[in-house]
Amino acid sequence: MKIDQERIPINLQKRIKDELKKQKISLSSMARKLNISSVSLFQLLERSTMQVDRLWTICLALDINLFQEIANHLDGKAYNPTVEEKNKEIAGLQQKIKEMEKTIDRLETERDCFKEAISLLKT
């Protein structure tokens, strides 16, 4: 299956610049956090592409998840459960655990009855 080259639906560089403004972080301060020069950061934010490892460090430095923002634009192409879906799944798993605990209790009771019956047969 061939996939057409598509641009990322959000402008990461603009999103990063907006976040810097929002958090009142200067380019030079951000560059220091990333251990790169201000010029390198400026060039990075002007390019149309960005390496994943650099995007990762920027996400950590700004405490944002741009990867999730990208994933949210996949429009159901990738599974991205909501909190409600996750809670529903957890509730289902908790119900299964309760059922299994009941089964274990029943089996332990049956085992104990069989042990008692065997001991009575031996006498």
Structural features, described:
The model has no long low-confidence stretch (mean pLDDT 88). This protein is an all-alpha fold and 123 residues long. The protein has helices spanning 12-22, 27-34, 38-46, 52-62, 66-72, 83-122. It has six helices and no strands. The chain is 70% helix and 0% strand. The chain folds into two domains: 12-72, 434 Repressor (Amino-terminal Domain); 81-123.
Q: Structural class, from helix and strand content?
A: mainly alpha
Count of folded domains: 2
What is the tally of beta strands? Answer: 0
SSE order, one letter for each helix or strand? HHHHHH
Count helical runs.
6
Average of per-residue pLDDT values: 88
CATH class category label of the largest domain: Mainly Alpha
Q: Any idea what the shape is?
A: rod-shaped
| Fold-level CATH name of the largest domain | 434 Repressor (Amino-terminal Domain)
Keywords, please?
123 residues; mainly alpha; 434 Repressor (Amino-terminal Domain); 6 helices; 70% helix
Structure at a glance:
Helices cover 70% and strands 0% of the residues. By secondary structure, the protein is an all-alpha fold. It is rod-shaped.
Task: Give the topology, please.
Blueprint: H1 12-22, H2 27-34, H3 38-46, H4 52-62, H5 66-72, H6 83-122
Helix pairs in contact: 2-3
